[in-house]
Structure formats: structure tokens, C-alpha cells
Design goal:
Radius of gyration: 29 Å
CATH architecture of the largest domain: Up-down Bundle
Largest sheet: 6 strands, antiparallel
CATH class of the largest domain: Mainly Alpha
Order of helices and strands: HHHHHHEEEEEHHEEEHHH
Helix content: 55-70%
Low-confidence stretches: 5-17, 195-209, 220-233
Distance between the termini: 76 Å
Structural class: alpha+beta
Length: 340
């Protein structure tokens, strides 16, 4: 009789925490007590993390398998308003903007949990400002590298010396200038003959005129070429005693090492420019997408759409997960490109 009662309870769902069979199989139960939307966001972020990890591992493999690689402190030493020789100052400011925007995003989620509509809108607006500021800084950095320093996905004018030595004067004799002496591991930038009338933003120095600028001033034909839109540029591909103008119009300086070996500046690894623009661009696309979604969600929050749902502004929490992920990825991008 007791067995029949147990079977009866099992069939009708009265022996499982007072849940009926229909309730158990209704499909409305939330796994791990997390909503479907947040669970799918975690799945997306996990897959995106694998994608970024693959890109950064590829960069690391190429970086450490190459005999030379651009020196970050030299490549990223310029900043707006004519600031030079300030390694990592600008990118640190960029990172600060993104980290602060992550803090404001946390505050927006907290206000959402309290059902504070005005608080959500206010803190999301500050998050958008931070994200837009980061994108503006990245746009300046790309413009500087492309238009001022002539780096592309196929050409990297940033090189690294593998020996200690000194550059040659235009007549082919070793230079006596202090700035023309270099050490192994020191970075350099190959200048394009057609820059602005003042040598462009390539000096990477804190003095009035760099060694490169002094060199350009002494090479009168090249200076004339700059000012006359390259009309008087010496024939490209022809060697001169102290320099060479290559087939792309770049001035490659000649030098002699302490061991007496002669050399000429060469481009750095192509992979650096390609990977830099691709990976930082991919991350920038994530930031841009996040800013767009933040604007949409902020407008929805301001309209009262999420307040009517009475779910603690869950949509704000979901976009917050995405934004924190973008911030975390930047930490690794910053480490790989700007510090190693």
C-alpha cells in the first residue's frame, strides 16, 4: 500500500519538492539561476576570448622568433601637441580612459539593481564618454603612424640596430655628432623624403634638431625635394656616400659598426605593422560596437523601457559584462604591444 502511494506521488509530481510534472518539463527553469540572455553573453565572451588569445599568441610567436623587433619605447614615444620622447605616456592615458569607463559601467549596473533610472542614464553617459575618448585617442595614434611615420600593414619603417656603431655624414665619413652614435638594440625610424617643411613629427627627441633633421638639412637636394614636392629628388635607388634613397622615396642612412662593418638602415619586420593594425583595429571595433550599444541601451533606459520590466535593468548588466571584457582584453593588448 505504501508502495502504491509512492508511485502515485511520483506519477503526479508530488514527491519532488512539490513540483508537478508540467513544471519540471516546462523549459522555464534557469540553469545556474542565470537568465538565458546573460548565459548567452557569457558564451559569446568566451568564444571572443579564444579569438583574441589566438591573435596575441600569434603575435608573440612572431615577436620572439624574429631577430629584430621595433622597440615600443621608441615607436610609441610621441603624443599630441608636439610632445616627443615621452614613451607610453599617450597610451597610458588611453588605458586610463578605458579603465575609468569600466568603473562608471559598474556604477550604472549598481544603479540598475536599485531601479534608479536617472542613475543608470548618468553613469552610462559617462561610460560612453570614456569609450569615445579612447576611440579618439586610437584614431590619433593610427593617423600619426600612417601619415607621419609612414607605417602600413605592408611596410614597417621602424628598425632596430643589432650592433653598436655610428652613422655616416653625407660625404661618407663617420659622423662626430653625439646623436649619430647608436648602440645595439636601439631603435630608429627611416624617414620619407617627402614630409612637411619641418621634418614631420619624426624627431622622437627633446632637443631643437635631431640628428636625422641635421642630416636632411645637409642633404640640400632632399630638402629641396621636400619643399618642391619631390621635383628635385635624386634618382631613387641610387647610392650616395652617406645615404641611399630607396625605390619608395625613403632615406636610408648608412653607418659603420664598431667592428668596422658597413651597413645601411633596413625596414623592420612587416609583421609588426600588420599585426598592430589588425589586432588594435579588431579591439577598436569591439569598443566602437560597445559604444553604439551603450548609446542604444542608455536611450532605452531613459525612456523607461527597462524600468517597466522590473528586472533590475538586466540589459544594462549584460552590456556591462561585454564592456568589462573589452577592458580586460585591452590590458593584454597593452602588455603585448606596448611593453614587451
Amino acid at each position: 500500500m505504501a508502495h502504491d502511494t509512492a508511485v502515485h506521488e511520483d506519477v503526479h509530481g508530488h514527491g519532488h519538492g512539490n513540483e508537478t510534472t508540467e513544471e519540471l518539463w516546462s523549459g522555464g527553469r534557469q540553469p545556474f539561476k542565470v537568465s538565458y540572455g546573460k548565459l548567452m553573453m557569457w558564451y559569446f565572451l568566451l568564444s571572443d576570448a579564444f579569438t583574441f588569445a589566438g591573435f596575441l599568441i600569434a603575435y608573440g610567436a612572431l615577436r620572439f622568433s624574429s631577430p629584430t623587433w621595433p622597440v615600443p619605447d621608441f615607436v610609441f614615444s610621441t603624443a599630441p601637441f608636439g610632445i616627443h620622447n615621452a614613451p607610453l605616456i599617450f597610451v597610458t592615458f588611453m588605458s586610463f580612459l578605458l579603465i575609468i569607463s569600466s568603473v562608471t559601467m559598474v556604477r550604472a549596473v549598481q544603479e540598475g539593481a536599485r531601479e534608479n533610472q536617472r542613475g543608470v542614464v548618468f553613469w552610462m553617459f559617462l561610460t560612453i564618454i570614456g569609450g569615445a575618448g579612447f576611440l579618439g585617442c586610437q584614431a590619433w595614434e593610427w593617423n600619426n603612424l600612417i601619415s607621419k611615420e609612414c607605417m602600413t600593414v605592408l611596410r614597417n619603417p621602424f628598425g632596430t640596430h643589432t650592433a653598436t656603431g655610428v652613422y655616416l655624414n653625407t660625404d661618407g665619413s663617420p659622423s662626430a655628432e653625439k646623436d649619430d652614435k647608436f648602440k645595439s638594440g636601439q631603435g630608429y625610424l627611416i624617414h620619407h623624403a617627402h614630409v612637411d617643411d619641418h621634418g614631420g613629427d619624426h624627431d622622437h627627441g627633446d632637443h631643437e634638431m635631431t640628428a636625422e633633421e641635421k642630416f636632411l638639412v645637409s642633404a640640400n637636394s632632399i630638402v629641396a625635394a621636400k619643399n618642391l614636392d619631390m621635383e628635385n629628388l635624386p634618382e631613387i635607388g641610387v647610392d650616395f656616400p652617406g645615404f641611399k634613397v630607396n625605390n619608395e622615396g625613403f632615406i636610408t642612412r648608412k653607418f659603420v659598426t664598431d667592428g668596422g662593418a658597413a651597413g645601411v638602415q633596413e625596414y623592420g619586420p612587416k609583421a609588426f605593422g600588420a599585426l598592430f593594425f589588425f589586432i588594435t583595429g579588431f579591439h577598436g571595433f569591439h569598443v566602437f560596437s560597445g559604444v553604439v550599444f551603450l548609446i542604444i541601451i542608455m536611450l532605452n533606459a531613459g525612456s523607461g523601457l527597462y524600468a517597466a520590466r522590473k528586472n533590475g535593468y538586466e540589459m544594462v548588466e549584460k552590456i556591462g559584462l561585454y564592456w568589462h571584457f573589452v577592458d580586460l582584453v585591452w590590458v593584454f593588448v597593452f602588455l603585448v604591444f606596448y611593453l614587451l
